[in-house]
Amino acid sequence: MSKTLIAPSILSGNFADMGSEVKSVESAGGDIIHVDVMDGVFVPNLTFGFKMISDLRPLTKRFFDVHLMIVDPVRYVERFVKSGADLVSFHVEAEKEVDRALDIIKAAGAKCGLAINPDTPVESFKPYIKKLDLLLVMSVFPGFGGQKFIDGSLERIAEAKKLRDEYAPNALIEVDGGVTVENCKEIAAAGADILVAGSSVFGANDRAEAIKQLRG
Ligand code: DX5
Ligand code: ZN
């Protein structure tokens, strides 16, 4: 992977004006739109669902990376693809039928990813790794933007990269939570291909400059 991709997370955008927010981070140079879906059960926060994605879909050609923080995602993954997701990822902790959920996403025509919380062993990717397009390593406990990058995440990213290099060389490593212009270089050096950035992009006075610096 030559260039680090930056995925602004619209969780940090203005929910009353999300169309403009997506266009803003697209024109600022964001590569991927990261869309955080929360159900108030898997995480202690609620965001939005299918309709936000289908309403945003015509506004940009950017890749929609939909990160589900919901219980039993197998129930809904197909509808997220039909709503406009290019990739759907869900949490290994939240799903008993991981293989089935991954298969449904693929059959519906999207790429699939698996996410792990900071206290979940990185090895949890292993049984599914050959199916994965994306390994999503959380560097905060999911639920809220603006949290601090958890110490020890760099080692976990490196461990995920090792697994990826060995078993799924075409999959990408995405890191989500607490990514800033200060720590982005070491996160990329540890093995991240995609950096999710919520507050560090949406909270910046100059979003284009923030994305440029995050890309390193
Ligand atoms: C956290 C979400 C993240 C979040 C990142 O639960 O999955 O995508 O928006 O926000 P920052 O970059 O502010 O940590
Ligand atoms: Zn996320």
Key words describing this protein structure:
216 residues; alpha/beta; 8 helices; 20% strand; binds D-xylitol-5-phosphate; binds zinc ion
3D structure, described in words:
This protein has 216 residues and is of the alpha/beta class. It has eight helices and eight strands. The chain has helices at 18-27, 50-56, 77-83, 98-107, 153-167, 184-190, 199-202, 207-215; strands at residues 5-8, 32-38, 63-69, 87-91, 111-116, 134-138, 172-176, 194-197. The chain has an eight-stranded parallel sheet with strand order 1-8-7-6-5-4-3-2. β6 (134-138), α5 (153-167) and β7 form a beta-alpha-beta unit. The chain is globular, with a radius of gyration of 16 Å. The two termini are 14 Å apart. The structure holds D-xylitol-5-phosphate and zinc ion. D-xylitol-5-phosphate binds at residues 9, 11-12, 34, 36, 67, 140, 142-147, 176-179, 196-200.
Low-confidence stretches: none
Note the run of SSEs as H and E: EHEHEHEHEEHEHEHH
Ligands and ions found = D-xylitol-5-phosphate, zinc ion
Number of helices: 8
Amount of helix: 25-40%
Question: What does the largest sheet look like?
Answer: 8 strands, parallel
Task: Compile the SSE list and pairings.
Layout lengths: L4 E4 L9 H10 L4 E7 L11 H7 L6 E7 L7 H7 L3 E5 L6 H10 L3 E6 L17 E5 L14 H15 L4 E5 L7 H7 L3 E4 L1 H4 L4 H9 L1
Parallel strand pairs: 1-8, 2-3, 3-4, 4-5, 5-6, 6-7, 7-8
Helix pairs in contact: 2-3
Bound molecules: D-xylitol-5-phosphate (DX5) and zinc ion.
